[in-house]
Each structure stands twice: as C-alpha cells, then as structure tokens.
C-alpha cells in the first residue's frame, strides 16, 4: 500500500510541474527551518555549557585561593615557631655555664 502511494505521488508530481516546484520549495523551507532550530538549540546549549564552566572555574579559583591562604598561614606560623625555637636554642646555648 505504501509503495503504491509513493508511486502515485511521484506520478502526480511528474504530471504537475507547478505542484512539484511548490512541494520542493516547501521541503527546502522546512529543511532550512530545521537547520535554524538546530543552530539555535546548539547556541543555547553552548551558552549553558559556558556558564557552567565559568562557575566551575570560579569555584576552583576560590578553592585554590583559600588553599593558598591557608598554606601561607601555615608557613607564617611555622616561621614564627622556628624563630621562637631558634631564639630558645640560641638563648640556652648562650646562657650555658662554661
């Protein structure tokens, strides 16, 4: 049944060139609209991905910055402790009776 319908449509289009041109024009318009919709969807998707990546980069930057600050705090505390230790060692060496 389907093959018969296709043959009939092909026969009708072959017999009526004006109708064939109109159908071809409509099909091209439909394909162009489909391509345009796909492009718009792709743009929308790209924008969403870009936004997500921006948030991820921002969060990673904040994380790394906080880790760097924490690391800097630890180094500063260690330096202070070393200074205190050096002072204690120096004082005890200097104050040792000979």
User: How much of the sequence is in beta strands?
Assistant: under 5%
* Shape, principal axes of CA atoms: rod-shaped
Work out the number of β strands: 0
What is the averaged pLDDT score? 78
Distance between the termini: 118 Å
3D architecture notes:
The protein is an all-alpha fold and 98 residues long. It has one domain. It is 95% helix and 0% strand. The chain is built from two helices and no strands. Helix 1 (2-15) packs across helix 2 (17-95). The chain is rod-shaped, with a radius of gyration of 39 Å. It starts with a helix and ends with a helix. The mean pLDDT is 78.
List the helices and strands and how they pair.
Blueprint: H1 2-15, H2 17-95
Concise account of the structure shown:
Helices cover 95% and strands 0% of the residues. The protein has two helices and no strands.
Descriptors for this entry?
98 residues, 95% helix, mainly alpha
């Amino acid at each position: 049944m389907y093959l018969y319908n296709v043959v009939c449509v092909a026969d009708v289009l072959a017999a009526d060139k004006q109708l064939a041109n109109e159908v071809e024009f409509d099909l091209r318009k439909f394909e162009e609209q489909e391509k345009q919709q796909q492009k718009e969807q792709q743009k929308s998707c790209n924008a969403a991905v870009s936004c997500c990546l921006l948030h991820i980069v921002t969060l990673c930057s904040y994380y790394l910055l906080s880790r760097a600050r924490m690391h800097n705090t630890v180094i500063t505390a260690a330096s202070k402790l070393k200074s205190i230790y050096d002072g204690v060692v120096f004082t005890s060496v200097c104050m040792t009776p000979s």
